[in-house]
């Protein structure tokens, strides 16, 4: 399973792309920076988008991707892209973005029968097939509604989990501990330095210290991949991660890199 890091930053600044991962060239995991980082031909390969939550930095390029694909859909050269996520997350996108006020409703364009986008709500804890991958979503503590994902290739057994944005939570870790396999790879956020713990808790994010407390809820020690650092604090966060993740193997994600699980 190949994971292409289109963006992994918690801040939108030059040289820092917002959260968006591409799996096996066809599945997007969040869509904060897609159209600005991929040529049109690669965008046209996308078939599914897994959305963790409806905050703009994780979904904004759904809008521009739809705009780029409409001509291909109109000529029957591309099928509808499915938006998957918790029902309240998809409803937020429907109500507040794809509403013909903020952005055209691409679930009815170019036609009702042949749209660019379709909604496919996911039930928490229920595994589904997504382009040959096994996928499940589980709620986490962030936003009005938010969830993390586990993606697994049934042929090879390769897999990873992605928390999305989250503050301290419990159900997510319980689910991971109950997986029928030992979790080997975990992508998790570290948005703020330890000195900003109060803000992190209010905004439902993690600091290095809070991150370690969350990882201690796991019964295994997977390899940790760090995402969503606020770029203005990244140096401080990295220094604190070195101590907080003592005993763990971890990697700081970088825009543009590709990881093979």
Structural summary, described in words:
By secondary structure, the protein is α/β, with parallel strands linked by helices. The chain contains 7 helices and 14 strands. The strands form 2 sheets. The protein has a 7-stranded mixed β-sheet. Strand 2 (20-23) and strand 3 (27-29) form a beta hairpin. Helix 6 (208-215) runs parallel beside helix 7 (234-244). The longest helix has 19 residues, at 56-74. The protein is globular. It starts with a strand and ends with a strand. The model has no long low-confidence stretch (mean pLDDT 97).
Report the end-to-end length measured between terminal Cα atoms. Answer: 5 Å
Low-pLDDT segments, ≥5 res: none
Report strand %. Answer: 15-25%
Indicate the overall shape: globular
Number of strands: 14
Summed over residues and divided by their number, the pLDDT gives a mean of 97
SSE order, as H and E?
Answer: EEEHEHEHEEEEEHEHHEHEE
In angstroms, what is the radius of gyration?
18 Å
What tags apply to this protein structure?
single chain, 261 residues, alpha/beta, seven-stranded mixed β-sheet, 25% helix
